[in-house]
Task: inverse folding
């Protein structure tokens, strides 16, 4: 089976594209100022993508374990298996690094926000009341702006969840295809074993008959019988194995 038709490489290519997009989003996330709406939204998106990719790699590892039981049957060798395992380990490491960085910055941001909230609770003197006064009009504009921003973020998140759902469905379809192929190959093996048993029984029967005839035949008759059986064996071989 060529790499273009191998389900492993089909899924691998899709996962690698997801990892590339994840790393691109991560670099964008690093440039965003903390404690902003965009940064919070992108943090949730990165963590969700990390979970999705980790699940895909885990499913791919399961198919590798299945193939490792009988590599020759799937047309691969131990070297290919080792190469596939190395790729999944590298993919897990890349996703894990992104996830650790996002979680660490998120926790630090939460701690800093909590500290700022505590400081804001303390009474502040020698400050002019005018610096903390906002007009009702400014508040309304700010609330409206934030509401529009939240609606836009929710819409973008819904679109991303739809894409993630479609990706999961594609992975599931590939898994079902692999399962069906394994069942078909198992049936072929069973049929081949049954046919081999039947052929062995027929050959044993012929050999017993030949032994009986050889005992009764003369030397010349034995030679003729050997030639006849040799021709018969060649014909049976062609019928059984070449047709």
Result:
């Amino acid at each position: 089976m060529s790499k273009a038709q191998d389900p492993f490489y089909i899924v691998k290519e899709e996962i690698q594209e997801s990892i590339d997009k994840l790393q691109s989003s991560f670099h964008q996330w690093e440039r965003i100022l903390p404690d902003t709406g965009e940064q919070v939204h992108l943090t949730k998106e990165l963590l969700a993508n990390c979970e999705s990719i980790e699940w895909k790699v885990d499913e791919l590892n399961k198919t590798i374990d299945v193939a490792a039981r009988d590599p020759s049957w799937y047309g691969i060798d131990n070297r290919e298996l080792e190469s596939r395992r190395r790729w999944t380990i590298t993919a897990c490491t890349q996703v894990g690094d992104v996830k650790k960085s996002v979680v660490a910055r998120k926790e630090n941001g939460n701690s800093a926000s909590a500290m700022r909230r505590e400081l804001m609770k303390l009474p502040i003197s020698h400050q002019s009341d005018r610096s903390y006064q906002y007009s009702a009009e400014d508040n309304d504009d700010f609330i409206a702006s934030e509401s529009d921003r939240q609606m836009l973020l929710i819409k973008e998140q819904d679109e991303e969840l739809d894409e993630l759902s479609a990706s999961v469905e594609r992975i599931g379809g590939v898994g079902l295809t692999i399962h069906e192929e394994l069942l078909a190959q198992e049936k072929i093996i069973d049929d081949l074993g049954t046919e081999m048993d039947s052929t062995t029984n027929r050959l044993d029967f012929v050999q017993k008959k030949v032994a009986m005839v050889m005992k009764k035949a003369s030397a010349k008759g034995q030679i003729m019988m050997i030639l006849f059986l040799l021709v018969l064996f060649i014909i049976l071989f062609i019928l059984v194995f070449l047709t």
Notes: Residues 114-134 have pLDDT under 50 and may be disordered. The domain at 1-119 is CATH 1.20.58.90 (Methane Monooxygenase Hydroxylase; Chain G, domain 1).
